[in-house]
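Narrative progress, year one. The postdoctoral researcher (J.K.) led the effort to move from monomer predictions toward full complexes, under supervision of the PI. The following entry was the first complex the group processed end to end, covering 581 residues in total.
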Amino acid sequence: MNPRPWLESARVELLLFVREPMTVVFALVMPAVFVLVLSGVFGDTPDPSGAVFRGVGGSTYYTPAYIGLAAASVGLILLPTHLAGYRERGVLRRLRASGVPVTAVLLGQVAVALALSLAGGLLVVAVSFLSADPVGAVDPWGVLVAGTVGALAFALLGLALGALLPSSRAAQGAGVLLWFLVFMLGGAGPPPEVLPGVMSDIGDFTPLRPLIIALQDPWFGNGWNGGRLAVLVGIGAVAWAVAAFRLSRD
Amino acid sequence: MGDAPRRYCSGVSVTDIRVRGLRKAYGPVRAVRDVSFDVARGEIFGILGPNGSGKTTTVECLQGLRHADAGEVSVLGLDPRSQVAQIRRRIGSQLQDAALPDKIRVAEAVRLFASVGDGKVDMDRLLADWGLETKRNAAFHSLSGGQRQRLFIALALVNRPELVFLDEMTTGLDPEARREAWRLIEQVREMGTTVVLVTHFLDEAERLCDRLVVIQAGVLSATGTPAELVQRYAGGITATFTADVDEASLAGLPGVTAVARRGSSTEISGEPAALLHLGHALVQRGVVPTDLRVHQPSLEDAYFRLVGMDGADGAGGAADAEEPAPEGGAR
């Protein structure tokens, strides 16, 4: 197999994402600003009853949560908008007709999404530790694995949305709506413990909730959460199948 | 179909594209109903037809971008349905209505498309050939329509393909850029590349194409060299002049089919040879009109007669599609 188109696709995709102002806003700035503001608002003193923030302080709760939010921003907004725009304008057709494998383009986008998500997560951690005093991760490798699996799951979800939605505007609109939904109910906004029962139940079904818990458990010293990681792998697998099926019929 | 290839390689006819009984429908719409033709190696082959006639669908089936419902298709000896990856490594493609990412730069696009081949590209030469040397670092969205079109053609040719599909190649180009594009396409052909040109610019087809087909309503309605189509469908020459001559005597000249008086002008229609007989007859009578104007039929005349003659249902076209293509007409 000729590796050149695969490497060149990844390089071009990285350049295109970096040139997009939305990338900087949603993947890098917004999660870091949220963690800055919420750490300032809630501090890091745990609730004495242990009823909110899973028994830890606000800053310690939100730092891993916003690592997850960076991945959700990339997967729900940036990638679908980008891919749907490609389909809408015939970019994929042109590349396909010229022998550039569409799978190479898609995997290039996934690789870039992964890198952006991890960069966004690192920025969240840096801002959090510079502005507040959260408890550090007990198991950083567990956090890294959860962050990577989650970023991949959201990237693949982004491919599926980009493959299903008809235009970049539709993808952007749907992506921002979904982003607010998972943000508010998935555990990155109000802590799930304070959400009314039905909203918390809905939040359980958002893909952000398992990612946040999978990130928080090793961070708090609760070990790896195999069940939530498996959910993320399942989301990624289904999303990839949907994207591959839909794009093969374009 | 009798439109056999007329170009030869080492004395042996090589067919780069063979299409037989191609059919393709989109739901109830039968976009291509019955198309058959051959394209010989090294020729510029034109596909003409009104909008929605099935031209683009036909070339998309050849490139494996769509799967035909029925019929046989062979491209470079390969089947686009099962060997599309091998085909795409050997062809170039300029698609209609397909863009590039807004923020990709010209040089990045060239490198991306070149990566499918051996990755070697003479960037300076390619960009200079297509008038893009000052646009190397320009983003795609900042290019004018003509510059975009030239970039698309350059990308189609970047890997020195054996066969290139150019769909509406010169749409959006100004007259000067169109002529330059024609010159470059002729150069590409001189290097042995086969060119399939989908166009609705009749002057372009007449200038560039060795042979062409006209597709109407999904059916082949004519095939041949531009000269053959002109001869077959365009009607004869028309000569107009002002002189006091006996119309009846002109009507009897060899090749003259009609004589009409329009005010003070006389209009003679007929075969090309009628012009010589007319000139001879006028000189013999001592009449030398100073306003003699001759209209030579062009591919445009042939095309519009074909389209008008056959109507939209393509029934007449189906009959024409069966007629054998004349031999030896390649320019």
